[in-house]
């Protein structure tokens, strides 16, 4: 890939010669081209839909996801063939059921009964006809967007002309070389940027964490939730503690020292924090799995989510316990007597 | 511990001399204790009686090491409380003093055994041993069949029995009872005092009972009557009848 590329989200094309340069590196078992582009396609109802177009190697079709209904990947080699994939979206790949509502002359037919795009349906990409030959089962994209797979030769016919059309070279390492070692060799010999698939995946995640506004929005939401959580838990723990002051006074009268009472308060708070963290992460995991399995939404729990979440909950609970401990430490045990 | 000995040759568990205590300052100050002189002997049950606000609670608070006196001396079980720091006093209370409160003050989330175990746990006894000992004491107060009952499921009399068991479980040398019968009916109150007399009173242990209840005066060995921060008389034997 181009040395400036940091993720799959923001790419720039490289010369076609890059493929041959990569193939020449010692340790490369095979190398195939992959092109990424954005294309606006006109659907049969007359509406435009933006797709991420992915051009795969004509010979190997490497990069094509499994297809629905057992359709063979080789359908992509038929003339003008494309494979469409919702990419995590819902209801964007539709066509009117009635042939009379397809390809309207004047205005889109948006309020007519529709069905999902299927094999045989036609689309227009840059005034070129393409034919849907199947639907892909790719993982949902973040952010969600419809995907259109085709061969590199079809892509070069349908896309607007560009000086370079190659975005990535997908290299497979020989058995004696690790992907990371091969990436280093490619980088050193070709001047291109090369990453193992695991590293590039991590790069992409980091890129989103740094550049995506969604991450900032989520961080703001979590900060607000933490502030509210701190307020609620702090006040509740304080109320529970003050409600039980008489019992703390009894314990003090019977010889419990401040250290023991503080331990009791912090253990209560810590247990609540542990339970809350466990329940929260468990619920999050369940909701995430449901969203993946039932709604095909992208969900991923990063390793630091439970760690940072747990630490923040601990911090909140420690602060709440510290505030609650004050009245207990100031408590005079004499209040347990009837005359007080 | 070395106890003081009185003229009759009895060990003195509590000796107060010239004890004073004032709450507040300036015009709002209230002198709760005005030079208390009092001896409580080992093995005796001393009742402290008097009208509300006469200083009874302040006196037992000072004797129990919960409150500091302003002046005077208070020697409890051979230890001068004034010379103990807060930590020592807390430890001393935990080891040597048992409490029975008017409102029982049992911990509502703990069952009878766990409530009675609390003083032992505070003193660092292992939970298993503490609960075994608590079961023994609960059996001694006839609650062997209600070991797992929460306080909310016990009658007032049963709760006070648990409170007595809790006061006795660590075998303290001084037991301080604050209005122990005022929340109980006459019969239950009498039963409770009989129980206290039977199982709590022993030659090496003193009981101080603060009460308003003249119906239980007969259980006292001596009665100290307080008024306006002073002990106005201490009576024993048949003289107690005069206090009715």
Gap between N and C termini of chain A: 80 Å
Distance between the termini of chain B: 37 Å
CATH superfamily of chain B: P-loop containing nucleotide triphosphate hydrolases
Mean pLDDT of chain A: 89
Helix and strand composition category of chain B: alpha/beta
Q: Helix share of residues of chain A?
A: 40-55%
Q: Can you describe this structure?
A:
The complex is a heterodimer of chains A (340) and B (244). Chain A has 340 residues and is α+β, with helices and mostly antiparallel strands. Chain A folds into two domains: 17-196, no CATH class; 213-336, no CATH class. Helix content of chain A is 42%, strand content 17%. Chain A contains eight helices and nine strands. A six-stranded mixed barrel of chain A has the order 1-2-8-3-7-6. Chain A has a two-stranded antiparallel sheet with strand order 4-5. In chain A, strand 6 and strand 7 (128-135) form a beta hairpin. In chain A, helix 5 packs parallel to helix 8 (304-330) and helix 7 packs antiparallel against helix 8. The termini of chain A are far apart. Chain B is α/β, with parallel strands linked by helices. Chain B has one domain (4-243): P-loop containing nucleotide triphosphate hydrolases (Rossmann fold, 3-Layer(aba) Sandwich), CATH 3.40.50.300. Helix content of chain B is 30%, strand content 27%. In chain B, the strands form two sheets. Chain B has a six-stranded mixed sheet with strand order 7-8-9-4-10-11. In chain B, strands 1, 2, 3, 5 and 6 form a five-stranded antiparallel sheet that branches. In chain B, a hairpin with a 2-residue loop joins strand 5 (71-76) and strand 6 (79-80). In chain B, helix 3 packs parallel to helix 5 and helix 4 (127-140) crosses helix 5 (156-168). The radius of gyration of chain B is 18 Å and the shape is globular. The mean pLDDT of chain B is 88. Chain A binds chain B through residues 246-247, 250-257, 260, 332-334, 336-340, and chain B through 52-53, 56-58, 60-61, 64, 66-67, 87, 90-95, 97, 99, 101-103, 105, 107-108, 118-119, 122-123, 178-179, 182, 210.
